[in-house]
């Protein structure tokens, strides 16, 4: 048996960088990891089975990681037990977190001796192939608040000088990432809005701000959510408006019908922006 953890990730801005090779398709943008994430426990079994918080689940992205790492291993199957306090499909990058944690744990179980970067790439490719994400694994591999402004390696990003701090969020329901990534018209609108946001993020990075940098990035995220057309749920719109009326800064969680802010608000859950990357657990 082996165990690993990967943090949840909240994406604030993203631009789709398409490519026919899934190892080169990725996203640009900005996001940050949070305290809560996914713990994965793996053990050899007679067939492959995936559980999420105790219930059997169809999780193609995780199965793709299992299939890749167990190829030619000689084992019949793997039992994958995933646990998380965060909901699936609501913008916390749980597909990426689960895939990365499973990759780390399976590598340990099989004594496969792959390095963390190779494991992260396996998780990233599984995400791309199953249309469940484009940039979460990069953030979860590094940990912290990251910005990615140049095309290239899916795992290359710059860390913003933002300290660990409380974050407040509320989610209302899921958005299917695969539906958004599969909609060419919507993707084009997202990328147009992302180009504007990325230029602003580049200016903020070049200015080397330290005070209120995170709030400034949140404001960029909010503008992106509007211009991309992704901010459409009335509950999310109203919640952001109430936070702003109270003097706070807030934005939509990408991709989920949810809100995050540095400002406490009604019915919000408190988490924390953390620097912790994915890791093996004892």
Shape: globular
- Cα-based radius of gyration, to the nearest Å: 18 Å
Helix/strand order, N-terminal first:
EEEEHEHHHEEEHHHHEEEE
**Largest sheet report:** 8 strands, mixed
- Number-wise, the strands total 12
Percentage of residues in strands: 25-35%
Q: What separation lies between the terminal Cα atoms?
A: 10 Å
Low-pLDDT runs: none
Number of helical segments? Answer: 8
Find the structural class using helix and strand composition: alpha+beta
Helix content: 25-40%
Explain what you see.
The chain is an alpha+beta fold and 282 residues long. The chain is built from eight helices and twelve strands. It has helices at residues 60-70, 94-109, 116-129, 136-142, 177-181, 184-206, 213-227, 234-245, and strands at residues 2-17, 26-45, 49-52, 55-56, 77-83, 145-148, 158-159, 165-174, 250-252, 256-261, 269-273, 279-281. Strands 1, 2, 3, 4, 5, 6, 7 and 12 form an eight-stranded mixed sheet that branches. A four-stranded antiparallel sheet has the order 9-10-8-11. A hairpin with an 8-residue loop joins strand 1 and strand 2. Helix 2 crosses helix 4 (136-142) and helix 6 runs antiparallel to helix 7 (213-227). The N and C termini lie close together (10 Å). The mean pLDDT is 94.
Overview features:
alpha+beta, globular, 37% helix, eight-stranded mixed beta sheet, 282 residues, four-stranded antiparallel beta sheet, single chain
